[in-house]
Amino acid sequence: MKASVRTAVTAVVAAPLLATVFAAPANAAPEDVTASATVEGKNITVTVVNGSPYNLGCEITSMRDAEPRFQYSTHGSVDPYSTEDIVVFDVATSDYKVHWRCFTVETDEQWGTWVLGAQPTADPIPLTVGNALTGSLEMLGSLDLWGSLDGDGSVGAILGS
Known about the structure:
alpha+beta
């Protein structure tokens, strides 16, 4: 009789603990982690806002819309309940879509435009680096054919007068 009571009490106490350990993971709330992107010069800054109680690892990929299909990637981390800027440096002039994914090792929750085995919580972020319609002429270098003008704004120094 003692053994059956002890077994019953153990089962009652252990059941909630086992249910917690083996419970299906909670779905990530889309608003818990968000991202936005801005361009400054040739750099794309992705601002990740972490409204979750978890430390996050984040992967950022900027994919060019036109051929050749350039792709620029980086990664970063974001502390719980904080905001972090993750920068993709020296991106070629073009139109891009920024894809991102943040995840935590404490649970299997994920957020972003691509998540493994789940629905995305956000859409890719479209943006333009430089003037994508005309392309970049940086490869031509300086087109200063006349050199510097002298102090009074004339070309006298160049012509030797």
